[in-house]
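Aim 2 progress update. The chain analyzed this quarter is reproduced below.
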Amino acid sequence: MSNTETAVRTSPVTFTGQTRFHLGVVVTDLQASIDFYEKVFDCAPLKVRTDYAKFEPSEPSVNFTLNLSDRADTKNSTLSHFGIQLKDTGRLAQERARLDAYSMIDHDEIETSCCYARQDKFWVKDPDGHMVEFFVVLERDAEPSEEKSSVCCVSSENETSEPRSACCPG
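Predicted structure tokens:
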């Protein structure tokens, strides 16, 4: 092999398809976050260290890491929220019932208009305040509703009522 050629190496990590999404999240309490995301993903992390945990659920296929820090700034972050999109409302109901058994549901939104689509969804909040949306798109294209009904628009006790993402009309 010449110096300009590089051998193709295959990853020992297996997952569906040729690519998958990776997301690293800063957390302030690693164990509380592990406990939360074990319930969200319905599986244990594959790797845990004193300052790190990694989940690799097959459904949804994601490489999801928790990175311990003394500060997780969800108020000043440019991140709006995480989401898990499902194919039908039956699966949405199953996921909601599963997470409701842990008393994790923050709130529901039924027939809501967000991100220029009509959706059914529910939300959970991790220990650092990151919002996780489980949703089904019911209609691909829909005008935003007049009221700001989605969590990307609704303020919490400590936040302003400014829009938090592109799905919210300003």
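The longest strand covers residues 105-114. The helical segments are 30-41, 89-100. These observations will guide the mutagenesis experiments scheduled for the next reporting period.
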